[in-house]
Amino acid sequence: MFDFEFVKPSSIVEAARLLGGEGAQALSGGQTLMPTMKQRLAAPSVLVSLTGIAEMKGLSVAAGTLTVGAATPHAVVAAEAARVFPALAALAGGIGDPAVRNRGTIGGSIANNDPSACYPAAVLASGATVVTSKRRIAADDFFQGMFSTALEEGEFVTSVAFPIPEKAAYVKFNQPASRFALTGVFVAKFAGGVRVAVTGASNNGVFRWAEAEAALAKSFTADALQGLGVDDSDMITDLHGTAAYRANLVKVLTGRAVSAAG
């Protein structure tokens, strides 16, 4: 690991000023950044910790929307979202192990946008709004490919606003060593339709399965998926599974998520 300076601002305004400096990097839970730095694959000269900013922590509910501060650890989401958004709470409670859940944060997860991370599926399936230090970004515009988002240089996530669905569930097939999703599907039913988001399967990162959304909007049952197929041309092939295997998992897990939600 290379030498760096560590600073811990107490406000979003102060953090934004510090992150405008050359070589500065935001640090939230550090579950990805710190191992990357240890391997000398990243060398920021200044780490700006976001964990001391009180306005970026905690959960609140208003007008049918659950807002989660970006510096809120997964374990807190798992405990405090259970009453209003149980599917999101269950997702958070299934990330990694206790050490990861008590350090990792929702903001860090979606900003990193690992292709197998769980939170991006929840954000996309819920049609959430990502609030940053500069603006508000719709989930459909935020995720832009593997490890890529709409965040600009120096911009960081401050909170995520989730519209609370009528029904929802998240089902993932774990990669047992890492507990990342080999494939995971989040299904959310709203009065105006259904959204289905898939993680862990595509070389392009998290994505929506439009055909399933249309079928489930007509009949919110696992049987509605029977005639559908998933194109495997952009699916990941690695030592854990082929593209065809992951494509099949998408359909299977979507059916299970619908059954769990319904």
TrEMBL record:
Gene3D superfamilies: 3.30.465.10, CO dehydrogenase flavoprotein, C-terminal domain, Uridine Diphospho-n-acetylenolpyruvylglucosamine Reductase, domain 2. Residues 1-167 form the FAD-binding PCMH-type domain. It comes from the Bacteria. The keyword Repeat does not apply. The keyword Chloroplast does not apply. GO terms for molecular function: FAD binding; oxidoreductase activity. Keywords: FAD, Flavoprotein, Oxidoreductase. This is Xanthine dehydrogenase family protein subunit M. It comes from Tabrizicola oligotrophica.
